[in-house]
Amino acid sequence: MDQTTRESFTAVQKNGDGDLTAFQTSSGRVLDYQQALAEVKAGAIAGVNVFKGKDGEMYIRGDADGDPTNNLDQLPIF
Predict the structure, then answer these.
(1) For residue 61, is it within any domain?
(2) Domain count, the chain
(3) Please, which pLDDT band fits residue 15 given cuts at 50, 70 and 90?
(4) In-domain check, residue 43
(5) 53, 63 in Cβ contact below 8 A?
(6) pTM for this model (two decimals)
(7) What is the pLDDT of residues 51-65, one digit of tens each?
(8) 20 to 30 A from 12, CA-CA: which of 25, 56, 60, 62?
């Protein structure tokens, strides 16, 4: 899939600790964290990637493009 056909994340939900718990996509779908992680791993979501944290768990993060305004933490809350 190329950039034009892949979805992107447009909004997020966070828990009380500020951790991301759900994502809204550019087509309006709502994915919980595990669903989103699977789609990012499959390459279905543009602008993000998966990395392994120090705790051994897998996490979603925005691609490093030098633009802090499109970081996942900066997306609107839905």
Answers:
(1) yes
(2) 1
(3) very high
(4) yes
(5) no
(6) 0.88
(7) 999 999 999 999 988
(8) 56
